[in-house]
Amino acid sequence: AGELEQRLQQLFGDDPPTSLSVVRHTMARAQAVCRIHCTIGGKSKAFASGFAVKGSVLHTAWGDDPVIVTNNHVISTTPTASSQRVEYCEAVFVSPDTDEEHRVGFGAVLWESEIEAHDITIVRPAGPLPSHVKPLSALPSTTLPGRAPDDQGIGRVYVIGFPAAGE
Length: 167
Fold this sequence. Notes:
13% of the residues lie in helices and 30% in strands. The chain is an alpha+beta fold. A six-stranded antiparallel β-barrel has the order 1-2-3-6-5-4. The longest helix has 11 residues, at 20-30.
């Protein structure tokens, strides 16, 4: 009977099960993630991702109000073929319970670093974020190792976002 029970309960694939606490933690962090939309010619189009973080986590002068972090190849004060000016963009947060979209315009670009350097743009939202959005409020206290090997020596990181503005 013991051998039969072992065959009835199997793990498929190389990844171990994910604990409920990890799933809850991930879902909580996902609330800070937004889709970036751009409006050109009167049409709004999703094209990238960003996330909300408490401003003071990144720079004390920015205070505790949230900022949105995205890539410089997404929003730039010197747009390229792939980036847009901040005034044409907005953050779209999705309610976890209803899938309703909440749109928030952008104010000023607070800081940016070109694609060739860090590829980051930090923007102040033009208004309050939806009540369900909990901006990230801390940075990890440790850095990732140079390589996080699994059994095959391949590092793994899970990124929460809207790849190419998809689901």
